[in-house]
Specification:
The chain is of the alpha+beta class and 529 residues long. It is 26% helix and 24% strand. α8 runs antiparallel to α9.
Length: 529
């Protein structure tokens, strides 16, 4: 087999591994407005894509596209065509027939600079984010679409075209099985459309279902039980915690830590509560003997931004449990994702239709609303579990809470973690574990996405010469590159198109460096010859 045939075969095998990694990335971190995957496992190079505008005149429409990955992916970019024959009413300045003009795609026809265009460091998720931004955000959020030549162009969509396009989306069927009512690939379900919470000053509207007659037993506990506490009177919008003590056809009665007051929580078909369960809810109306509560009230953007700024606990409802985390409704426009890394407990311990207290990490991230359930107590820990970092000795911050210690280790750079591990025996184990986790997750080849455990990582370097003086310099952009990518796949450019002439191993650890030492000696020998 010739050398070129060997490289071609190696690149196709590497493309299959890279596609599998890109698919796992999408499954671990799904996007709100776009979904994609190969619908035929026998052809991983053909992906089907669904785009769903967030809001605007086409809110709820789904555009179904087909994306083809080249056999040498990621050396060459994907190609995507827009099915104008099925959506003839769609108008966009960057759409020319079925060709989408996007600079990281093969169909781009605009101007390039030294760093624009496709890079092998990009993933399928990168393409989907740009595609969603181009076809959704610009069209439905503003009236001006940025152009490659500089300067915006007004969108040509009109209410009449929008109505026709919506009908075309509902009519479309794909041979893969996709249809409007059952999109394929599956998308994150949109938030339920609920009416806004009425004003507390209108009791007949705010509480359509009156609470049941007070149970004498419950009334006695609230009025003079030993558990009653003299707390300040709650106000509308306050978060209170109570215990379910009575269930009726229209809702639940909660025992609250307030004298002479009980809570009334109207039944929500999305939520399943049990007797004696601890529940956190928001006060929507205050009466002398009753607090009317709502589990997940609808919240405006300003209210969400305030909650994020104050880092306040927000009651939510678990809508879905996936292998990568939880989708939780907190009253925003769309459910938020609590990634498995943001949970205090095991993922298997959470169930749908159950309440969960969370905090807001990001409101408008590229991947939608991001939440955390760490740093609780958001969920009661198992009996006998420790909430502090058990490896810390009494002389070293024994009162430091576990979440605080984890946050400290999470945000320290690699060199600081190594210094911390040498500062004392108490920190050695946690710091070394955090450093190992950093290397496994963050340090990856930009081309193959392989970690240092999957191969030898190094750096691509080049020799540049000054035009005026003739002096030569060793240049490096410090983007990790695997030995396989440079020698076997013949990657000759870095992330930003810089030339790579030599490869040297990274000294991540002694064992890793020794594995690539022969390659380093070989590179030095080539320079001395």
């Amino acid at each position: 087999m010739s050398s070129s045939s060997t490289v071609r075969a190696s690149r196709q095998a590497a493309a299959l591994r890279r596609i599998a990694k890109d698919l796992r990335e999408l499954e671990a971190e799904p996007l709100q407005l776009v979904s994609a995957r190969p619908v035929d496992l026998n052809d991983p190079f053909c992906w089907h894509v669904n785009l769903r505008p967030a809001d605007g005149p086409l809110e709820g429409c789904i555009f179904h596209l087909v994306m083809h990955l080249p056999r040498d992916y990621p050396f060459s970019p994907p190609s995507i065509r827009f099915p104008t024959e099925h959506f003839p009413s769609f108008r966009h300045p960057n759409l020319f027939g079925s060709m989408i003009c996007l600079d990281i795609l093969q169909s781009f026809i605009g101007c390039h600079d030294a760093h624009s265009g496709w890079s092998t460091a990009y993933t399928v998720q990168t393409v989907l984010l740009q595609l969603a931004s181009l076809l959704a955000s610009f069209l439905f959020e503003t009236d001006h679409v940025p152009q490659d030549h500089g300067g915006p162009k007004k969108s040509q969509m009109t209410p009449k075209l929008a109505a026709k396009l919506r009908a075309e989306c509902e009519k479309f069927r794909c041979p893969c099985g996709h249809c409007y009512s059952a999109p394929l690939p599956e998308m994150i379900p949109p938030p339920p459309v609920l009416p806004p919470s009425p004003a507390p000053s209108l009791p007949c509207v705010c509480v359509p279902s009156p609470p049941p007659a007070a149970s004498p037993q419950i009334f006695q506990q609230s009025q003079g039980g030993q558990g009653a506490r003299d707390l300040p009177s709650p106000c509308c919008g306050d978060l209170v915690q109570g215990r379910v003590v009575q269930e009726g056809p229209q809702g639940f009665v909660l025992e609250l830590p307030f004298q002479q007051r009980q809570g009334w929580l109207a039944r929500d078909r999305r939520c399943a509560l049990a007797m004696q369960q601890e529940v956190s809810a928001v006060v929507t109306w205050v009466q002398p003997k009753w607090l009317y509560l709502q589990l997940v009230p609808r919240r405006s953007q300003q209210e969400l931004e305030k909650l994020q700024e104050l880092q306040r606990e927000v009651p939510g409802l678990i809508l879905s449990v996936k292998s990568y985390g939880l989708f939780v409704d907190i009253g925003a426009r769309a459910p938020g994702l609590v990634h498995v890394s943001e949970l205090d407990g095991e993922l298997q311990s959470f169930e749908t239709k159950t309440p969960l207290l969370v905090r807001i990490l990001e409101l408008n991230s590229p991947k939608g609303l991001r939440l955390t359930a760490r740093g609780g107590p958001f969920k009661a820990p198992p009996s006998g579990s420790e909430t502090r970092l058990h490896l810390l000795q009494p002389a070293l911050c024994v009162d430091l809470p576990g979440p605080a210690a984890e946050a400290l280790l999470q945000f320290l750079p690699l060199e600081a973690l190594r210094s911390l591990s040498r500062s004392g025996r108490a920190w050695r184990g946690p710091a070394e574990e955090a450093a190992s986790s950093f290397l496994r997750t963050e340090l990856r080849c930009f081309h193959t996405k392989a970690s240092f455990e999957e191969g030898i990582l190094g750096l691509g370097v080049a020799i540049t010469e000054e035009e005026r003086t003739g002096k030569r310099h060793l240049t490096c952009d410090f983007d990790p590159l695997s030995e396989e990518a440079f020698f076997k796949l013949q990657v000759g450019q870095g992330v930003w198109k810089q030339t790579i002439s030599y490869w040297i191993p990274m000294a991540i650890c002694r064992e890793h460096f020794e594995q690539g030492l022969d390659r380093l000696l070989e590179a030095l020998a080539r320079r001395t010859d």
